Amino acid sequence: MENTPSVGKPISRLEGHLKVTGSAKYAGEYQADDLLYGYVVNSTVTKGKIKSIDTSEVKKIAGVIEVFTHENKPSTAWFDFQYADMDAPPGTVFKPLKDNDIKYNGQPIALVVADTFELARYAATKLDIDYEQEDFETDLKANLEKSRDPKKGLASMLKPPPPKPTGNFDKEYESSFIKTDSHFSHGTEHHNPMEMYASTVIYEGKDRLKIYDKTQGTINSQMYVANVFGLKMKNVQVIAPFVGGGFGSGLRPQHQLFMAVMASLALKRNVRVTLDRAQMYMIGHRPPTLQQTKFGADKDGKVNAIYHKATGETSRFEDYVEIVVNWANMLYPAENTLLEHEIVPLDVYSPLDMRAPGGSTGMHAIEVTMDEIAYKLNIDPVELRLINYSETDKSSDKEFSSKELRNCYLQGAEKFGWNQRNPEPRSMKRGNKLVGYGMATGMWDANRLLGRAEAIMTPDGKVEIKSAVTDIGTGTLTIMTQIAADELCLPIEDITFSYADSKMPFAPIQGGSFTTATVGPAVQNACQALNEKLFKLAKKLKDSVLSDAKFKEVQFRDGWISLKNNAEIKISIKDVLASNEGKSVKTTNSAMPNPLTYGKKARAVHSAVFVEVEVDEELGIIEVKRAVTAVAAGKIINPKTAESQVLGGMIWGISKALHEETILDHQFGKYMNANLGEYHIPVHADIHDLEVLFVEENDQFVNDLGVKGVGEIGGVGMPPAITNAIFHATGKRIYDLPIHFDRLL
Q: How many structural domains is the chain composed of?
């Protein structure tokens, strides 16, 4: 039976049955003999010092094994760089239990270890802690005078600062036919993956550890543990085959990993530490950000002047920076630009990348501003984008490797029925509901990093592919199997993709929409190298019919190696394997962008989002009734998993626009709604008709597979599209997210 291609097919997730039947094991579910449980104790004050922690009474409780504090913490690494990780921003990395200083509310200050989780949690409430409190500052808006330019520090090494000014913004803006001047804000958001953070550490003796960790990077956690605790990398194994959501919260090792490893090494026992839901609000967040945009355009709608400033929150000890203001000139080719980004250090924990970090924030302000221009000029919002369309990234003067955004606009508008829109605000009604149509553009980077993969063909002709990459629910396991099946011309059933183990070939953290573009080519290269090895073995067979053939002259199909121009001249792969003395055929290969050519073009994934809202005219209640997202993301390996990714992003976009916000009481420096009852996210009743459309896009530059990531793009354009639809429905322009009904009354 001839093998048909797997890439491009909507194959269901290969691990799906394990997840829906409960057979998939997560980090906090692995059983071990003689397992101890740790519970983290958090500071109840926001800034100051611990004067004393009395552990004597807690240690008398039967079943309590130990209480770790800064006073009895085992020795760990001294230098800051030893605590760094693949996603650490510049600054002084937070070191749990380092000393008695309190830097933020909820800081981990002790670990109670007991025979059961429940006992450890109970004992934690009995600790007697005395604090010396200090004044603190947690309010971004009240401390704007303390903002600073992060590019003057080390932050610019990791995330590019805004491009330098071009032209003469002030002069061009003042002489523009249309001018906008708008101020935007959004509140703090927390990641809230379903699976809470847990680490199960198996002590294997002689400083050898096997760790089941909730992480978006097994090698990242391995590197962190080895460096912090002075262990050999080969003696630390981190495993994470199933991850119940991450959204960026697992890009950095979280403190439960530190605590579990510390306790395991000190006690020479197996230890598990799990954070509860409230503690999940103490490990990072999307920072609240204030923005100002000033765009100038001529009477035909051509944007000729762009000003965009963002001011975001960071901690006292790290310079967390997002790429917020760089996007406008990448999309719209204005000649006169002034882009600024500042950060305000506050007494909070460091913010952390959250799905489409910076892009989700910046594109909201940019696309609402474009909508303002469209209404001022009475130009259709889609037409305005086409007037300002460019095949180059003006901010870098580089041509895009591919850009099918124009077709996203056109195909998305047709699918949505945009032509049925009456452009006049408050002109469309359905009963007592005001109906609004809104649209926006989405954009995200299409990057790739270094990745490695191993391919092993066993004597029975089956193949195992190995990579340390995680699968955080995106479908990585499935699409890597599809890529391997096609490269080897084997049915997908003959491929096993083994992953999420730090002892496997290197893969970076899974985030930024670069995983498929990074690990996919590594899998592709490893499979091609495996084919070459098989071909060389075939040539060595006695009386081989391929002895004079070259590799480029043969093809692999249906278990045979044959000549491309004469399929009758062939050798069975089973015969090749039989000649290899019962040994497997192995190969390991890398894939990385060519540093000499990769930067010569701009690389991005694009989308056009169309939204219909209904707003109750009397109550102000907002419903997103339907939305269409048209995406251009190169080759789509699996339309089913890709669609799932974009749909998830669209739902999060609804959440960001209308629901999500963590409220920080600045009197206490504490988040007041650290739970899923009061931290509002959409439920089934909030989600209606969502549709994803993939626009065909051929890109031969980004990587040999021609793929771009889709993890981020689904959420980038939704908040501004919803905001613009609300304006069309009500005539009220809301600049602050989330938008609650009281703003419309």
A: 3
Q: Exposed (0-12), middle (13-18) or buried (19+): which is 419, by Cβ within 10 Å?
A: exposed
Domain identity same for 50 and 90: yes
Give domain status of residue 15, yes or no.
Answer: no
**Domain with 457 in it: what CATH number?**
3.30.365.10
Helix, strand or coil for residue 364? helix
Domain identity same for 97 and 121: yes
Q: pLDDT tens digits for 577-618?
A: 999 998 999 999 999 999 999 999 999 999 999 999 999 999
- pLDDT tens-place string over residues 247-291: 999 999 999 999 999 999 999 999 999 999 999 999 999 999 999
Residues 494 and 529 in one domain: yes
The rounded distance, in Å, linking the Cα atoms of 275 and 261 is 15
Does residue 70 belong to any structural domain of this protein?
Answer: yes
Structural domain boundaries, residue 260? 32-135+196-246+250-277
| Claim to verify: residue 176 and residue 202 sit in the same structural domain | no
Q: Is residue 525 within 8 Å of residue 491, measured between CB atoms?
A: no
Q: What is the pLDDT of residues 100-122, one digit of tens each?
A: 999 999 999 999 999 999 999 99
Determine if the peptide bond prior to 738 is cis (ω within 30°).
yes
CA-closest candidate to residue 65, choices 117, 17, 112, 126: 112
Quote the CA–CA distance of 341 and 151 in Å, as a whole number. 9
Q: What are phi and psi of 428, to 5 degrees?
A: -110, 130
Residue 13 lies in a domain: no
Distance CA 234, CA 239 (A): 13
**For the CA atoms of the chain, what is the radius of gyration?**
28
Q: How do 670-671 and 664-665 pair as beta strands?
A: antiparallel
